[in-house]
Structure formats: C-alpha cells, structure tokens
Amino acid sequence: MKRWVMIVLAVVCTALTGCERSASEVENTQYVFSGEVIEAEEEYLRIEVHDAGNSSLSKGAVIEVSTDVVAADGCPEFMAGEYARVLLAYDAEDPALRLEALSVSKVDATGGDPIS
User: Fold this and answer.
1) Can you give the pTM of this predicted structure?
2) What CA–CA distance (Å, rounded) separates 37 from 26?
3) How far apart are CA 25 and CA 23, in angstroms?
4) What are the tens digits of pLDDT across the range 11-52?
5) Residue-wise pLDDT tens digits, 59-79
6) What PROSITE patterns does the entry give (predicted)?
7) 87, 36 in Cβ contact below 8 A?
C-alpha cells in the first residue's frame, strides 16, 4: 500500500514540475505594440501607441523607446509622422520609463506590412 502511495505522489510531483515549466515558458513571451513616431531623436523615439498588441499599454499612451536595440540590423532612422512596430522582451510595466526594445521596425499607418 505504501508503495502505491509513493508512486502516486511521484506522478503528482512530476506533473506539477511540468506545470512549472509551462509557467516559465510564459516568461519567454515577446510583447509587441505599434504607433506613430511623434518625436525622433538619436537616442530614442517617442511613440504614440495606436495598437497595443499584446502589451499592457493603452491606446494613445506616449512611450519612449531606446534606439539602442538588440536586432542585428539596429534601429532604422525615423522621422516624426512615420509608424513603428516595437518588439519587447518584457511587458511595459511602467510606461513612464524609456523602454529597451529587441527591435523597432517601420510599418504602414495600420501597423501592418513592414516597410523596407
């Protein structure tokens, strides 16, 4: 009888460990939003969010994004009035801080179709 209890406990512990791994995979989620560039400086872009994507940002929020990005081809040069899609490694918990992006790319006014 004790042997069966130990086997059942081992199976339950293994199942719970598998759930913990699934939760850690959620941490690997990438977050994206897009919007209009309202100010373009060498060190950062100020973007008005038009599409919050899967981030917690609100539509209409103004966000600063660093132009120092992880992407191999860097951040393209932007001018005010152009549109950008921003990919983040973490959700923007405090939109008052300048965000560090994985990549920033030019998109059309709808936030789709990347522009080369």
Assistant:
1) 0.72
2) 29
3) 5
4) 555 555 554 444 445 567 899 999 999 999 999 999 999 999
5) 999 999 999 998 878 899 999
6) PROKAR_LIPOPROTEIN
7) no
Phi, psi (deg, nearest 5) at residue 61: -65, 145
Tell me which residue has tokens 């981030």: 55
Tell me how crowded residue 85 is: count the other CB atoms within 10 A of its CB.
Answer: 23
Sequence-ordered list of residues with C-beta below 8 angstroms from that of 70, at least 6 positions apart, any chain: 89, 101, 102, 103
Distance in angstroms (rounded) separating the CA atoms of residues 31 and 99 = 12
Q: Residue 49 corresponds to which amino acid?
A: V
How far apart, in whole angstroms, are the C-alpha atoms of residue 31 and residue 89?
6
Query: At 45, which amino acid appears?
Result: L
* HSE value, Cβ hemisphere, 13 Å, CA-based, for 88: 24
For residue 17, give both structure tokens. Answer: 């460990």
Q: Cβ(89)–Cβ(30) under 8 Å?
A: yes
